[in-house]
Specification:
The structure is a homodimer of 335-residue chains. Chain A is built from 15 helices and two strands. With 335 residues, the first copy, chain A, is mainly alpha-helical. The first copy, chain A, has one domain: Farnesyl Diphosphate Synthase. Chain A has a two-stranded antiparallel sheet. In chain A, strand 1 (100-101) and strand 2 form a beta hairpin. The interface between A and B is large, with 42 and 42 residues.
């Protein structure tokens, strides 16, 4: 749906926004950390300024621009979403005992669990302070609700670990909370900050939800189909951890009995046998489970884009092109 | 300064406030957790409704009453401080690998590290949502600043682990951030919510800071002098963990060389030798280090109380008696 050439202006825009958000984060950290322990600064800078795609800040910026506002404060608002996102990554990595993140050592691995948990807490507080200051009561409520929804999504995911009876509906409930809620709140609060109408705010919230779901489906697909060198993650990791995501849920529902048994054995521990994962992988391919998942992601993203038609293309061509480019990138990305 | 009979009305008041705050927390959790994972509810109820002194909610209530407001919302505001406090306890216990808290298994021990970290994050978000809703922008800023100060205090404390050169001033910087900042913010935001004047708000913030410092000094004293059965903590635990608190800092600064060497050896690991801690303990007693610390706590608390004279005793006799009773309790408590 989107050719690779359409992605060039998207990347240029993301890069511009990312640079400005990073500059804003540096200034904000300097201001907020006056008189604080130097190790706290070091941990926060390490966690925040070590690359990252900066998709959330970019979405906040475009959402606000679509509603008519683009000023310095917008980049501080955008930084708050990166703060919260990074806080959740740091805490998730402690929970998962992850060694690496974004191509470098995870915060908990490098600075210890205490520093990681505490730095995450600091980022939580700072992000809520910024959102409350810049987007008021309503913005804060949306933001806190998204944070609580993320926690609930993680609990739901824990509940379904190694649950071979998990349904497609339950999978969608997990990713809606775990991933889409923060992305949706980013667009919604960006629109609110930008002075959008009720309809504009709702449309951008829905766009965020839909592309958030699409994003997570593709993320789960990359766990099976990605190149380890490119994604920086071990292929089939979800299999090993007992996370049942869409391709596997589809395969379990479609496989005839012998195939289903291969999958079940693989989930239940026989995956250590040589070739077990390869067999399962081939089976999922043959059953069309990857294709099914990719189509589902495409459908979500398409629905997200269609709702943007309420914005005037003549006035907002550039911003709409960015959101469309992002949608295309989400579906075609390989990392 | 306060006899034990003065504490009776304090306890009755605390009990009344605690019951109402607990009822409010239950209702708030029910409301906020509709449709959420049942394990999340279970973890939060376990963490929040397993006793606790409820000193912070009580301080929020009295501070608001002193400024003229006492209604249902006040108890929801008060609950938010308990949420944040419990969030920090849960995360601290994960960091310290603590087995027990408030006489029962720590959350991380009972439900696992993932559930503990996530439940703390949920409580962070919920508390900020409540404070932002009930105490507005200014209240949220004070609350977020206190949260960030707590994190900074923990980092400062980590920096000084086993640091035998730590000064009294550095110790006070740690406990000001780690403990006093949240207690101070509780009184300050309570006063703000209650519609207090600038002077009233400032006075209650200072009262909170001073009794917070006094509270932590006594907490650190109880680590040496407390009864294990009563406090539920191992006596001399700070010694074992290399936390240098006021009695030890005083002893190190006052001891003649041989005594100082006994203390240093004990801090550096010879404490496993039979009787090493007992010798250090006796030395600290002989040097007047416990008495010195108790006097420092008394002085802080006295300064905190003196600032309350701006409130009219005829109108606010009951509330002032509670704050005075709390000050006395802080100094004489044995758990």
């Amino acid at each position: 749906m989107t050719s690779s050439t359409d992605i060039v202006p998207l990347f240029a825009f993301i890069k511009r926004v990312a640079a400005r958000v990073e500059e804003t984060m540096r200034a904000d950290l300097d201001r907020a950390l006056v008189g604080n322990d130097p190790l706290l600064s070091q941990v926060l800078e390490y966690a925040l300024l070590n690359s990252g795609k900066r998709i959330r800040p970019m979405l906040a910026v475009v959402s606000s621009r679509l509603c008519g506002r683009d000023d310095d404060d917008l980049y501080l608002l955008a930084a708050a979403f990166e703060y919260l996102h990074v806080a959740t990554l740091i805490h998730d990595d402690v929970i998962d005992h992850a060694e690496n993140r974004r191509g470098v050592e995870a915060v908990g691995k490098k600075f210890g669990v205490a520093a990681a948990i505490l730095a995450g807490d600091w980022l939580h507080a700072r992000s809520m302070h910024l959102i409350g200051t810049l987007a008021g009561q309503q913005g804060l409520n949306i933001f806190c609700d998204a944070t609580m929804a993320m926690v609930d999504g993680e609990f739901l995911q824990l509940r379904h670990v190694a649950d071979t009876a998990i349904t497609e509906e339950q999978y969608f409930a997990v990713i809606q909370r775990k991933t889409a809620s923060l992305i949706s709140s980013t667009c919604e609060i960006g629109a609110l900050f930008g002075g959008g109408t009720v309809d504009q705010i709702a449309a951008l919230a829905t766009y965020g939800t839909k592309i958030g779901i699409g994003f997570q489906i593709v993320d789960d697909l990359l766990d099976y189909l990605g190149d380890e060198q490119t994604t920086g993650k071990q292929v089939g990791n979800d299999f090993i951890e007992g996370k049942l995501t869409l391709p596997l849920i589809h395969a379990l529902s479609q496989a005839p009995k012998p195939g289903r048994n291969i999958l079940l054995n693989c989930i239940r521990g026989d995956r250590s046998l040589a070739g077990a994962c390869d067999t399962a992988h081939q089976l999922m391919h043959d059953l069309g489970s990857y294709e099914f998942s990719r189509q589902k992601a495409g459908q979500e993203v398409k629905e997200g884009l269609s709702i943007l038609k309420i914005f005037d293309r003549d006035r907002h061509g550039e911003s709409l092109a960015i959101l469309e480019g992002l949608a295309g990138y989400i579906l075609t990305r390989d990392r």
